[in-house]
Amino acid sequence: MKFTNQLTVGVALSLLASAAFAYDADWKRGRVYYRSVCTSCHAVQPVGTINPSSKTKAEWAAYLKGDKHAKGKDTVKQYVSKAYRASIKSGNKAAEKFAAVPDQELLDDIAAFLTKGAKDGDAPASCN
Q: What is the distance between the alpha carbons of residues 16 and 14, in angstroms, rounded to a whole number?
């Protein structure tokens, strides 16, 4: 019985510690990256720029969760990776500035910006 109580307390403390260190996404950093990296690339492609307000929060969440970019030809995560940022940093100041940011944090930042700027978000945004 004593072991079970200690185990329960240990698990509870572990969960509390995890919650205390959860990353709070920075939509402003996500906006900088999206506008400087994503939009700059899309602007020269036939698809053109994609404004955050072109989709709802649910559509952006599904897109990011699906992790399919260019109609499934590659992944979204690829364009947020440190390797990708390193490959474009000489020509892109945002990629250089955020070179050391963990991939998942940057993806969370972009998701926060897209959610805020979605057509049903708090501040529908365009990327002009």
A: 5
